[in-house]
Design brief:
This protein is an alpha/beta fold and 191 residues long. It has 5 helices and 9 strands; from the N terminus they run βββββββααβαβαα.
Amino acid sequence: MRLSIDLNYIPEENKVIKLGFINHIILLIKSGIASVALFENTELMDHKVFRAYMVRKKQGKSQVKYLKTKGKSRAGSRVRLQETLDFFEDINTRLISYFEEYRVDLIAMNSSKILLPYLFESKSKTPFEKKDIRLYKIPKHIASATHENLLEVNEQLFSSAAFITEMGTDIFTNIISINEDLDDDGKEEDW
């Protein structure tokens, strides 16, 4: 079962509760393009799409990935590497501004493992740690870090999905019946 980010399951009580107001950041990073957005509850407050010349045009391979096989002595390679450093510097600067201005309850992120060291080792320190408890790995492949995909990810974060086997049907039915008996205040309704 995957719950919406504004829901919490309490196993001791076998109950799902709705959380209050949350601020969250969505961070999508791909080679050459990144999207960063701040949401208050579900409302988009601010966003920015960053682009950089990081991909080798003729081969379609990121310069960062190319470093594993070849050197970095050519002029084009150095330009792409500097663009990469500036790219992550800009992302961290935007993140820092969000953290200074707002309380951040959740950081939903999607990035390849190869790019993560560049994010966390940028000149501008990332305003959260690699092991921050607010980090949430987006459970979906995202082809490109565009604004449209960012909005789609936000919608999916606020939707729930349950995959139920025959054994789990009784448990799920029990959860639904308990929660339907309660009104918005968490008290039983009088009929």
